Each structure stands twice: as structure tokens, then as C-alpha cells.
Amino acid sequence: MPHSEPLPQRADVAVYIGRFQPFHRGHLALLRQALALAPRCVVVLGSAHQARTPKNPFTWQERAEMVRLALSEDERSRVRFLPVRDYYDETRWVTAVRDGVSRLLAGEGMPSHAHVTLVGHFKDATSEYLHGFPGWRLTPVERVAAVDATAVRDAWFGAGADDREAALAALVEHLPPSTTAFLRAWSALPHHEELAEEWRLLRHYKQSWSAAPYPPVFVTVDSVVACSGRVLLVRRGQAPGKGLLAVPGGFIEQRETAYQSALRELQEETGLALLDTTMRQCLKATAVFDHPDRSQRGRTITHAHYFELGERELPEVQGGDDAAQALWVPVDELTAFEDQFLDDHFHMLDHFLGLTEEPHT
């Protein structure tokens, strides 16, 4: 693990990247170290534009507010926020971060050659991205407070309504008072109980596999079906992700190929049943989506199939199996629903349809 080093000469701007779900005392200590290195700091809010989940309960705007509330008035005046989506592609993500920071600095009249230092803590393999910014000075710092956001979320979502205040009291050493107050107010919103119920379901789901000799790896299939400028989606009828939009798909069967499972799941969830010869002619591409963090259920690898049906009349569809609804959505409207998609399904559509050809925030 890299050792902290004496604070170097001040840079023009410090960059601090995190998810802050929620913002805790460890984050605050690191942010203040970043502010000691430069007159201003860009806080990059990762996992932006995601649907609310037990792992990502807060929007980027709510997280920015949590950060602001924990800072002094002078510190707030020196902090800028940059929301960046998860591209599940490190090269694209790094480009989005660098371009976003450049736009922010240009908007404040700073030169393109401004001296940037990237501040971060190396906790495990998930921190390796800090090495991906050539041209920026990397300032590694030691962990200041032994606080883990996952443990905070588990304690918060795991407490029943009658125990919620006690759970917050137990977290007082880990959270700035402003974050504790924010969570207390947020607990009264409908989102809290919905996500707490999903948290319990996911916890039970993972516990059911705890006796396996090795951590399970799940294999799924998905189908991106485009027709006449629209794409076929389902609205999930069950948790996880109940009510969210998704690409039709599911788990591969023991005696099926990935292609056979994809067609079966497509028909079960949407009722789409074209001739096999038609579907084979319309299959334009396949891709494997295997980012380790793409699914909350655990390590899940999906084989996605892209079908282009051409400019024909839209086939009739109807939600079935665990899909509450099947619908044809105009491709040019998909970006407006980005924060309503399950897991990485928006990025699956982006891969095949080019929805965000240029990284932007």
C-alpha cells in the first residue's frame, strides 16, 4: 500500500473522486486534505444518473448537498462538483472525468495547463483507477478514519422503523452531524422503506449461497431488440429493481445455449415470437458484459444479443413472467430515462445503440 508523503507544493486544483454513499468522516478528512493542497477542489461524484438501489440510494444532487452541509462556508466556496456516470469501461470513464474537470476549469477562467493533483486513498484493488490519469500528480494519503460506507448502509437499512434512531446514534462517530441529520430526514421518505426491503431481499439471496464452496458466478442472457427507431424494454415486476426499466432477459438454462436462452427469455417476458429464421437474420451483434460490480445480486456475467428488426410494423408485445410490462420506447428518448434502469442495462443499450457516443455529464 502506498505511504502518505509530506504535502507537496500547492497545486492549482485538487481532484477528489468518490461515490459518497453516504458522505462520512473519512470522506470529510480526505476532502480537507485535498483543500490543503489547492485553492479549489473538484469533487467527482461517481455512479451518477443511476437508479436508486441499496448500494446507490442517493442521487448525485443529494450527495453534493451532504458534502456541502459538512463544510464551512469558506470550504464550500472552494469546492466544485462534477457528476460522472459509470460507463463500466475504464477508458471511457477516465476520459469523462478528465474532460469534465477541464470544462469546469475552463468555465472558471483557468488555463488548460493548470496544475492538477489527484487525491486518493488506496484501500484495495478498486482504487487502482487512481493510476489512470497521466499528467495529473497523484497524491496518495493514508486512511484517516476507519469508516466504511457499506457498513453504514447495512446498519441503516438493517434497522427496523423502531430501531432507526438507535442505529443512527450508533453511527455518530462515523458520520458528520450534518450527514446524520440528512439520513434522519431522508428516512421519512418513501424511498427508504422500499430500498430497505430490497436490501433485506438481497441479503437473504446472498445468504442462501453462503454455504457454497466458492463464491457463485451467475450467467445470464439479455436481448436488445430494435425496430423502427424503438427498442423493446420491460418494466420489472419483482425485486431487485421492481418498477425499473430493463432489457428482457434472465438466467441461462442448463440444457440451452446462450442464444436459445435469450430467445426463450425474450418470449417469456415480452411475448415476442418471430420465426427462428427471422431472429437469426436480425441478429447483428453479441457482447459479454462482465464488470464485477454490474449486478447487486453478485458476480453476474451476461451474454447480450442485439437484434435489429428493421423498419417494420412494431410487433405486439405484452409483459409476462417477472416483467410487469413490455413496451417499445423511442431510441432518442432513452437518455431521459437513464436513472430508471436496472443495473447496467442503460449501458448495454449504449453499447449497441451509441446513446452517449461522446462521454458527457
From TrEMBL:
> Keywords on this record?
Nucleotidyltransferase, Transferase
Q: Name one Pfam family in it.
A: NUDIX
CDD domains named in the record: NUDIX_NadM_like
Cite a single GO MF annotation.
nucleotidyltransferase activity
Domain Nudix hydrolase intervals: 213-352
Q: Which InterPro entries match?
A: Cyt_trans-like, NUDIX_hydrolase-like_dom_sf, NUDIX_hydrolase_dom, Rossmann-like_a/b/a_fold
Supply the SUPFAM superfamilies for this chain.
Nucleotidylyl transferase, Nudix
**Name recorded for this polypeptide:** Bifunctional nicotinamide-nucleotide adenylyltransferase/Nudix hydroxylase
Q: What is the lineage of its organism?
A: Bacteria, Pseudomonadati, Pseudomonadota, Betaproteobacteria, Burkholderiales
